[in-house]
Amino acid sequence: MQSPLRIWKGAAVAFGISVALVSAGASVQAHGLKAAPPTPISLTLPSTPPQGAIVLFSGKESELREMWIKRYSTEPAGWVVKDKIATPNKSDIVTKQEFGDAIIHVEFRCPKEGGGNAGVGIQGRYEVQIFNSFGQEPESHNAAALYSQKAARINASKPAGEWQSYDIFFRAPRFDDKGAVTEKPRVTVIQNGVIVQNNEEFTGMTGIQYGEFKEMTKTGPLILQGDHDVVQYRNVWVIPM
What we know:
The chain has one domain (50-240): Jelly Rolls (Sandwich), CATH 2.60.120.560. It is 11% helix and 33% strand. The chain has helices spanning 4-15, 24-30, 61-67, and strands at residues 54-57, 68-70, 80-82, 85-87, 93-99, 102-109, 118-122, 126-130, 163-171, 174-175, 181-183, 186-191, 194-201, 220-224, 232-240. It has a 6-stranded antiparallel beta sheet with strand order 1-15-6-9-12-13. A hairpin with a 5-residue loop joins strand 10 (174-175) and strand 11. The longest helix is centred in the N-terminal third of the chain and has 12 residues, at 4-15. The protein starts with a helix and ends with a strand.
């Protein structure tokens, strides 16, 4: 398996990231001492889709029709698009295209009322949670968690009503020549320019698959959750790796 640093270096070239991976905690752990609390590790990320990105939504209603469908159907996505913002109508949407290894960029805004419960579903199976978690301790159902599996290493959430971003570096599961899983999927998540998940493993499918997908696979669609709270989205794009 590749080291996190090697994965980062390869992804940084494709993504145009200015990377500064410096952690005093890592040095402390190497000497067998008690690790310091996690500290923010910030990155400079592009604000527009890099070369090679597949733009799934940039604010055009036509993109929802061309790139997305309503989940569990072949119907149009049906979300409302206004001022380059997509607002859910109590339904999830799913991409027509499937992805394997990928960098996924999603911008979202939690409502000021309610929990802001939503999520980004990778391959239709693995959820990076969206939630209004400003000022809260990280836990496995709060923002940037691998839903119900792994809390964020640090809380990087902004207050409800402000735009936030996830940049998700996803490594799909690996299989042997008989189709058996040899490596489970892994993910690094950057929330608002701060590393909140660092090369963490999804131990299995999360709740977002709703029993729809029982097995791991090489590729799968992207889901934006909209069947809970009215979390709005803009600027969604993917770089296949």
